[in-house]
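From the pipeline queue, job 12 of 40. The input is one protein chain; the requested action is below.

Action: predict structure.
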Amino acid sequence: MAKASATIVAIANQKGGVGKSTTAINLGAGLAFQDEKVLLVDLDPQGNSSSGVGIDRALIDLSTYEVLVGDAAIEDAIEPTSVTGLHVLPATIGLAGAEIELVSLMNRERRLAHALTEAVGEYDFVLVDCPPSLGLLTINGLTAATEVLIPIQCEYYALEGVSQLVSNIQLVRQNVNPQLDIEGVVLTMFDGRTTLSADVVAQVRQHFGDTTYRTIIPRTVRLSEAPSYGEPIEAFDPMSRGAIAYRELAREFRRRHGRS
């Protein structure tokens, strides 16, 4: 029997290198390991979320590109992963051209939202890994979602550009998706040896308040290594600090969504 509807969460930050794909992969896997059914939508032409769960992009027949720009049915493009309960709509570099091609299409900002209506009943959560930009691909992710999760790295200029992202979220809410809201902010790449990381944590918590997750993701070598093996950190090294952190993040995420 199909589920009523999935919670769709866009994971977005126009800055690159903030742990966005790492969070998409490992939050998705963490939820799946806690018996949730999760669809990971890779909306980034770099395809890091796809390769990070073991998808060989050279062997992909149908991808996010064909779903957004072509006539491909989303269920035909979704791939299983090695993690039970976690599926992925993969991306290839061909998605890079979608920004231009979408401009001339009808309902260009709603293409992903329309496609997901065919699949959301099968999942508890849909996590959309948006590209590090504020273009049409990210707008599609924000239009399809009801919530936005913002990863912010514990480094210099952590909040740089975040105000523009928040402004864009407000514009999307006003013009195409009144349901959209900021679900939370996740602090990533925390280095406990530096006062800078602690300062950034304090700064972000002051700026975003209770929206900020209590769980903080550390900077670790094992988290960096796991994608090259095509595995989430929970499968790659379940006893590592990164795995423990993302496991707790998934628990906190579930509690926020009323799931025990």
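Job complete. The CA atoms of residues 222 and 240 lie 7 Å apart.
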